[in-house]
Sequence to fold (274 residues):
Amino acid sequence: MSLKKILKERLPLSDEELSKIRRGFEIIGDVVIVDIPDEVYNLKDEIVKAILEKHKHVKTVLRKVGEVSGDYRVAKYEVIYGGETETVVKEHGCKFLLDPTKVYYSVKLSGERERIFKSVKPNERVLVMFAGVGPFAITIAKKSKAREVVGIELNPVAVNYFRKNVELNKVKDIVKVYEGDVREIVPKLDGYFDRILMPSPNNAMEFADVASLKTKKGTIIHYYTFAGVEEEKNLIKKVEEIFSPYLNCKGIFMRRCGNFAPYVYRYVVDLVVL
Fold:
């Protein structure tokens, strides 16, 4: 049952108030992230109560007050229930220690991470740019037969969690963690990669040249971006054009993998280097 429906049954709300209430929320371990517009902020205690009744394991509820931004890709939150924000997320047989107020992590990408690790072939060498706390890198290492997974992350807090999560999931023989800017680190890496992930939809296009340095014929690039539904028809062509100054490549797959705003989605476009 949606949050909106629960509140409608409990409170005498006007149609205008109901229209402002978001249907759902995100559960990250035992932390909930909910979007409460200012116009219905007075309902926050009832919203928290409804969440806790449905999810008794929750220890903290965060209200989102700012979108993901900056080089570290972290959103802004205020605590409206509880206080402890560090948590452990379980996903695809892996565990991820993290604090959503200090690092980027989205449960909504769980299905996309599954698609990726199921695509990885035995003995592949994989590069994950903007690796965060390691969800893509570690699920690939744990759930596929990749030979090596290299993860690069700029946010020092996320890197610290990434290293802890590598130990927690016992994949230190497969995953290599690098702290710093991908623009500085990628050119220094040895050899080429069979698969490259670029899961930073806000600015991945700025790093097409960097990713291209470590490709070879047959390399698969998973490129993530935000786009409006009206752009969907030509999105593969647009992404091909972003890479065209650096690579001869072809788009082979595209899908939505999360929403950002009304009629704006996160998309992934898979490319193969020719």
